[in-house]
Design goal:
By secondary structure, the protein is an alpha/beta fold. The protein is built from 13 helices and seven strands. The structure holds S-adenosylmethionine (SAM).
C-alpha cells in the first residue's frame, strides 16, 4: 500500500500519548492514518475514533487500519460537527492535525496544486463552495480581505483588483491558469508567487479558521477530565487561535480585566497548558519531510474536578 502522506511530529505524539492505557483517543483528522496507526501500535489497549471531512481519506484509512478493525470507528464529517455525538465515550485524548494532506495537495484532480486542470480545493467534495466560486464570484473587497487575512499579503488590494479585471474578460477555469496569472503579477523571491494567494483561497474554501474555532468550542463542550488535547497547526493564524483558547481554558480567574480584586473564586481553570512553547519538528524531520517545517504542536490537559 503506497502511503500518500507522512505524518508530522509522529514520535512526539506517540510519546505524549504513551501514558494513555485504555479508553478512547479521537483522531479528528485521520487523513491517511499515520498518527492513528502509530497510536494503535503503541497503545495496545486503547480504541480510536477516526474522523475526516474527506471521503477519500476515510476510505484509505479504513484499509490501512484494517488490522486494528475491532479497535477503530470511522466518521466522515467535520470534526466540530461530530464531537457532540461522542459524549458518553471514555475519551482520554483528542488529536487534530489540521490543514491539508499531501494527497490533497498532490492529486491533481483535487485542484489544490499549481498544475491542476481543476480549480477546486475542497477537503469535503460535497461542500458547496469551491475555489472556482471564490475566484470568479467573490467581490473585490472579499478577495482583498481573504488575501490580507489568510495569505498575509501586503499587495492584497492590487492582486484582488487584477483578478476582478481579468475575470471580466474570461473566468478562471483551472488552478494552472490561476497560478500562472499570479506568477505573472506577483514578485516573490523565496516562495512560488502563487503560494500565499492559494493558501488564502484554500483557507476560505474550507473555512479553516472558523472550523478550528468550532472544533475547540466542541472540545470544551465535552467537559472532559483527565484528557489530553493535542493540536498541530501549520499557519500562524491557526496557532494563535489554539494558543488563545488554551490560555482561556487555563485561567483560574475569570473576573473582568479591570476588576480591582478577584470575586469569582479563582478556581475556574479547566486544566493546564502542557506546552508553554509549541513543539516544532527537529531539523532531521524537516530534512526528511520539508512539508513539516511550519508545523506547531500545542497541548492542553483537562483536569478532574476543575469544571466551572
Ligand atoms: C494534515 S492531514 C492529516 C494527516 C494524518 N494525521 C495522517 O497521519 O495521515 C489533515 C486531514 O484533516 C482533514 N481535516 C482538516 N480539517 C478537518 C476538520 N475540521 N474536520 C475533519 N477533517 C478535517 C483533511 O481532510 C485531511 O485529510
Amino acid at each position: 500500500m503506497k502511503i500518500p502522506h507522512i505524518p508530522v511530529l509522529k514520535d512526539e505524539i506517540v510519546e505524549l500519548f504513551s501514558e494513555i492505557e485504555d479508553g478512547y483517543i479521537v483522531d479528528c483528522t485521520v487523513g491517511y492514518g499515520g498518527h492513528s496507526e502509530a497510536l494503535l501500535q503503541h497503545n495496545q489497549n486503547i480504541k480510536l475514533i477516526c474522523i475526516d471531512r474527506d471521503k477519500e481519506a476515510i476510505a484509505f484509512s479504513k484499509k490501512r487500519l484494517e488490522p486494528f478493525r475491532d479497535r477503530v470507528k470511522f466518521i466522515h464529517a467535520r470534526a466540530s460537527d461530530s464531537l457532540s455525538s461522542l459524549r458518553g465515550y471514555d475519551i482520554r485524548a483528542i488529536l487534530a492535525d489540521i490543514g491539508v494532506s499531501s494527497l490533497q495537495l498532490d492529486k491533481t484532480q483535487r485542484g489544490f496544486g499549481f498544475e491542476s486542470d481543476r480549480l477546486d480545493m475542497r477537503m469535503d467534495q460535497s461542500s458547496m463552495l469551491d475555489a472556482k466560486k471564490v475566484v470568479n464570484e467573490y467581490s473585490q473587497s472579499d478577495l482583498e480581505r481573504i488575501f490580507r487575512e489568510y495569505g498575509e499579503m501586503r499587495d492584497a488590494k492590487r492582486v484582488a483588483h487584477l483578478i476582478v479585471k481579468e475575470r471580466f474578460k474570461k473566468s478562471f477555469e483551472s488552478s494552472k491558469e490561476l497560478s500562472s496569472f499570479f506568477a505573472k503579477h506577483i514578485k516573490s523571491r523565496k516562495l512560488h508567487p502563487a503560494t500565499l494567494p492559494f493558501q488564502a483561497i484554500r483557507i476560505e474554501v474550507n473555512d479553516e479558521i472558523g472550523e478550528l474555532k468550532s472544533l475547540l468550542n466542541a472540545i470544551e463542550d465535552l467537559r472532559l477530565s483527565n484528557s489530553l488535547i493535542a493540536i498541530i497547526s501549520f499557519h500562524s493564524l491557526e496557532d494563535r487561535v489554539v494558543k488563545n483558547y488554551f490560555r482561556e481554558w487555563a485561567k483560574s480567574c475569570i473576573c473582568p480585566s479591570d476588576a480591582i480584586r478577584c470575586s469569582c473564586g479563582g478556581n475556574h481553570a479547566k486544566g493546564k497548558i502542557v506546552t508553554k512553547k509549541p513543539i516544532i519538528p527537529t531539523g532531521r524531520e524537516i530534512e526528511q519531510n520539508p512539508r513539516s517545517r511550519s508545523s506547531k504542536l500545542r497541548v492542553f490537559r483537562f483536569e478532574q474536578n476543575k469544571r466551572s
